[in-house]
Write a structure and sequence with these properties.
There is one protein chain. This protein has 15 helices and 63 strands. A hairpin with a 2-residue loop joins strand 29 and strand 30. The protein is elongated and about 105 Å long. About 50% of the residues are buried.
Length: about 1000
């Protein structure tokens, strides 16, 4: 079956069968839809005009359109009476068709948070009702606007989204449309016939009106299949036609010549011109009930039926007499409804079976979906009698009809950075499982299970308490103290036979614990706080012993006693860091004072939770002491009293500096955190430069990398390099690099000399008695240096005298260093220039990168450089560099703002503002209106906001649900003005400030602006 897709906001189904005609690409007649990574792509002509009879700009008036037609006539094209009728129909209809820009602001049920665009059309101008697709109206929290033909914009709210069918109804205030009459399109499902000429009319982003012609070719296609773990329609026919619709057309009306809608555009094949339209029979009923202020009743026996032709039904055991009777009653009939899935524990479970052929409902022959659904919808809570044939044997069952809305979730819980809701009938039907359990709609934060790379997880219990539904889940979470480590059992909806268990740390101090409930009267989801957490329980001191290692490892086996496992959870993604969790090995460098050194790729900044595991048994919290500004190391601390008499040891530094060819012991923890040890050789020690990432994030600079002659080293992200006496000569670390073309983050495994640890460790030891205050600082030049070989240096203008000085200063490696990058607006950048060749600092010829490293420097240093083949002496002020990292964050409109971190300063030559966009949430206003990462904000409305405090002051005064002008400058120094609509209900404004007095997490959160 050819791949197909659906559009609107969900366009990520590479492996699906069908595709929704969705959101963002223009609808044009001479396009061919294809798909890559779930998005629609087009091979367009160079000219955007694809025929004046089928496409027109939304800016064009009716007179302009008539002028085009007249021009075509004068050109000899001719206009038939039918074409003229279509022209009048389109002229009338376009005033009812809208472009919908929308966001699902939170993950819910089958869909993640996302933003997109689609179409819709007015079906009740007086009440302000717009018909569109369910996947546009969203099952979860919705925010959106409708743009009419004359570019007037109104806010829209969902008043109904069908539990299973792909249609939804939005509401707007008709009085807000002031410059054009609002008209409606009549629904006429009875006019849909095979061979009917149709036009699919839709908007793309409110800018282009596209009109695609076609003919209905089928009325009885089974609902398209969009793949697993996503929304799928069922128990309905779809209409089929060849009209080549594409992204942006979801929700477009399918019009007949008289201007009435016969169907709703929904989906289409990815590799063909075939499109699928949703029939309007049940839509018309729903609309009439809403217009009458009646609840829309929907019934279900939790069984999926498919339409099968008579030849298949006969193979399933349909009796010849039954077929003959049905054909006699309706000679045009070609098939019957067959049970495809009977959901366990549903009303029909134990009665109906897959393969049953449906014959009658309450004594009336039913071979189509509409009469079946009509009977179910009018029989909620009542019993119906189904007659079926199973393998040639007639059977009769009495089944109670269930309220379909009761098995469709309308609420979710925010907890620990994740979102969960009751398992829906939509998903239960896909996998033939009971409609019970708590489904993890957003597997992140506390519920980002170690092996849960995909969706589809159902939580079975929390701390040994079963969680069959959301209410029991809430009760279970409420009983667990904050930071407690508890077991959670879970399983995949696709594999109910395998139950997994994971130990999670209850997270109630960074994120909210609240219930969101859909409110169709307001169009919002109402939030209820579920109470304060139980305070963390005191950690009692514990003692553990280390596993015995084989004596053949020699002194190296004792080094495992100075190694710990460090796990970090980061509630916000700051400083461009791409992950929310990371773990690796750390090395105890002072057991008495509780000081550990760990890779900065493991602990990238100071916001988050750090857990340290000793002897693979004891887990206690840690905190950040110092983030090295240039090297890939972080110092963290723990309370030594909490590990009691556990025989940990502190690593001792070797006096012997590693050089190429030295024998070393490589002691590390592998990917399973099992100890490994091997004797190996240092193959090289050389200065390296970690590649930059397009989104700046911390890179280690100005260091010599150590490589080893063992493939085991590339399998271990953290470890120790020691000499024969068990003393440390180097650290083995993972370095975060660039993002590759596949979307993965490259990590480099390399060693560094242990000497970079010693100066900071000494400073921390001196201040340990005073709670490590004042924090250490280093001084140096804020420049990134890269090596230059002497052959190149000579051609750059280095004299023979300097070459001799280099040879004398370093007999092992002949090299100098060139200034590759300077920190924006740093003191160093005012005196040194990029591509300066450093000859000496303070009279010392610089041939080793360690000689230019940050450390203990005077306030001003004398630097001899070669600039443009001219030697000159420059007196350069050094700069104090702290290890605090980011200490203040502002969250507004779903975006994270912070001071530019050091990686930004290194990759940018200018600094337009101190307000830097570090990240944004999908579905948020910032995501919806284009405020992206790596932008600087300079103004809010007309207020200059070049500092974080000024920005916070400005956004705290902004009213809710109104547009604000944000002036930004991109990382490439391109200015731009964006308009963003504030949404405080779902995305309140708040700030996070580092606060050492906050014992809970070391940060204080202050809400600045909430919705009224």
């Amino acid at each position: 079956m050819p791949p197909t897709t659906r559009g609107g906001n969900k366009r990520k189904r590479v492996k699906t069968e069908e595709v929704v005609s969705g959101a963002k690409a223009k609808l044009k007649t001479k396009t061919k839809a294809s798909a890559a990574n779930g998005s629609a792509h087009f091979e367009d002509d160079d000219d955007d005009n694809f025929g004046d009879d089928v496409a027109m700009d939304t800016d064009a008036s009716a007179d302009d359109f008539n002028a085009k037609i007249t021009a075509n006539t004068n050109a000899g094209l001719g206009i038939t009476s039918e074409a003229a009728s279509w022209q009048r129909t389109i002229e009338t209809s376009i005033h009812s068709i809208v472009s919908i820009r929308f966001s699902q602001v939170a993950a819910f049920d089958t869909e993640f948070a996302d933003t997109s665009e689609a179409s819709g059309f007015v079906v009740d101008a007086k009440r302000g009702l717009i018909l569109t697709n369910r996947h546009v109206a969203c099952a979860g929290p919705f925010v959106g606007e409708a743009v009419f033909h004359d570019h007037e914009e109104v806010q829209v709210f969902p008043v109904y989204r069908d539990p299973i069918h792909d249609f939804g109804i939005l509401r707007f205030d008709p009085s807000k449309i002031k410059y054009m009459p609002v008209t409606e399109i009549e629904l006429a499902p009875h006019l849909a016939k095979v061979g009917l000429d149709i036009r699919v009319v839709g908007n793309d982003a409110g800018e282009k009106l596209s009109i695609l012609a076609g003919q209905i070719s089928r009325l009885d296609r089974n609902a398209p299949d969009y793949g697993e773990l996503t929304y799928n329609d069922f128990n309905t026919f779809y209409l089929q036609a060849a009209s080549s619709t594409s992204g942006g057309s979801s929700g477009s009306p399918v019009l007949e010549l008289g201007g009435r809608a016969v169907a709703l555009q929904a989906g289409g094949h990815m590799r063909a011109a075939t499109d699928f339209f949703f029939p309007l029979d049940r839509v018309k009923r729903c609309l009439e009930m809403i217009q009458a202020d009646m609840p829309v009743t929907r019934g279900s026996i939790m069984t999926q039926f498919l339409f099968r032709p008579f030849d298949e039904c006969r193979r399933l055991g349909l009796e010849e007499e039954t077929e003959a009777r049905i054909r006699s009653d309706n000679p045009a009939e070609i098939g019957m409804l067959v049970c495809e899935t009977v959901v366990p524990k549903g009303p029909a479970a134990g009665l109906l079976e897959e393969g049953d052929v449906l014959v009658t409902v309450d004594g009336i022959t039913v071979t189509k979906f509409v009469p079946l659904e009509s009977k179910l919808d009018e029989s909620v809570g009542k019993e119906i009698v189904l007659e079926i044939e199973r393998g040639g044997e007639p059977m009769k069952f009495t089944i109670t009809v269930l309220d379909l809305h009761s098995i469709t979730p309308d609420r979710y819980v925010d907890v620990g950075g994740a979102k969960v809701n009751n398992l829906s009938y939509q998903l239960a039907r896909q996998f033939c499982v009971p409609v019970e359990g708590v489904y993890v709609s957003e597997p992140s934060g506390m519920l980002k299970f170690d092996n849960a790379t995909d969706r589809g997880w159902i939580v079975a219990s929390v701390d040994a308490k079963p969680t069959p539904n959301l209410e029991e889940f809430i009760k279970a979470v409420k009983t667990v103290p904050d930071r407690s480590r508890v077991p959670i059992t879970y399983y995949s909806i696709a594999d109910v036979h395998t139950v997994n268990i994971v130990i999670v740390s209850m997270e109630r101090h960074w994120s909210s614990f609240r219930l969101a409930v859909r409110n169709d009267s307001t169009g919002f989801w109402d939030f209820t706080d579920l109470g304060d957490p139980i305070p963390p329980q005191p950690i009692m001191p514990s003692t553990a012993t280390f596993a015995e290692l084989d004596s053949s490892l020699g002194l190296a086996k004792n080094l495992f006693k100075c190694m710990v496992k460090v796990s970090t959870y980061m509630p916000l993604r700051l400083d461009g860091y791409p992950k929310s969790r990371k773990q690796g090995a750390g090395v105890i460098v002072d057991a008495k004072r509780g000081i550990i050194v760990v890779g900065r790729n493991i602990v990238p900044f100071c916001m988050g939770d750090i857990n340290i595991t000793f002897a693979d048994t004891i887990i206690i919290p840690g905190r950040v002491l110092f983030l090295h500004p240039t090297h890939n190391i972080t110092f963290i601390s723990y309370d030594p009293a909490l590990i009691a008499d556990t025989p940990v040891e502190a690593a001792t530094a070797s006096d012997v500096e590693l050089v190429q060819g030295h024998k070393v012991s490589f002691v590390a923890l592998n990917h399973n955190f099992r100890p490994v040890c091997v004797e190996t050789t240092v193959t090289d020690i050389t200065s390296v430069m970690i590649p930059q990432n397009s989104t700046p994030r911390f890179r280690a600079i100005n260091f010599d990398a150590i490589t080893l002659d063992t493939p085991l080293a590339q399998q271990c992200s953290s470890g120790i390099l020691s000499d024969a006496n068990g003393q440390i000569q180097g650290l083995w670390l993972s370095f975060l690099g660039e993002r590759n073309s596949n979307g993965g983050d490259v990590e480099y495994h390399m060693g560094v000399s242990f000497r970079i640890v010693t100066p900071i460790l000494k400073s921390l030891q001196e201040t340990a008695a005073n709670n490590f205050m004042p924090a250490p600082v280093v001084r140096g030049l804020t420049a990134e240096l890269t090596p230059v070989q002497m052959a190149q240096a000579r051609h750059m203008g280095v004299t023979d005298e300097w070459i001799r000085k280099v040879e004398e200063a370093n007999p092992h490696r002949r090299q100098l260093f060139i200034v590759r990058r300077l920190e924006a607006e740093g003191k160093t950048s005012k005196y040194l220039k990029e591509l300066d060749l450093i000859l000496s600092i303070e009279g010392k010829t610089i041939t080793r990168i360690s000689e230019a490293d940050v450390g203990v420097w005077p306030e001003t240093v004398e630097v001899v450089v070669l600039r443009g083949k001219k030697e000159m002496t420059v007196h350069v002020p050094t700069e104090l560099l702290d290890g605090e990292g980011t200490s203040k964050v502002v969250v507004w409109a779903g975006a994270v703002f912070q001071e530019p971190h050091r990686a930004v300063l290194h990759q940018s030559n200018t600094l337009p503002s101190r307000v830097y966009v570090s990240g944004r949430s999908k579905g948020s206003p910032s995501y919806m209106y284009g405020l992206g990462q790596t932008q600087w904000v300079t103004h809010v409305n007309s207020t200059k906001t070049t500092t974080l405090d000024a920005f916070l002051k400005a956004v705290s005064k902004l009213p809710d649900n109104e547009y604000v002008r944000i002036k930004t400058i991109s990382f490439d120094n391109v200015p731009c003005v964006l308009t963003i609509k504030n949404n405080l209900h779902y995305f309140p404004t708040y700030e996070l400030v580092k606060d050492a007095t906050n014992e809970s997490c070391g940060w204080t959160q202050r809400a600045v602006k909430k919705s009224d």
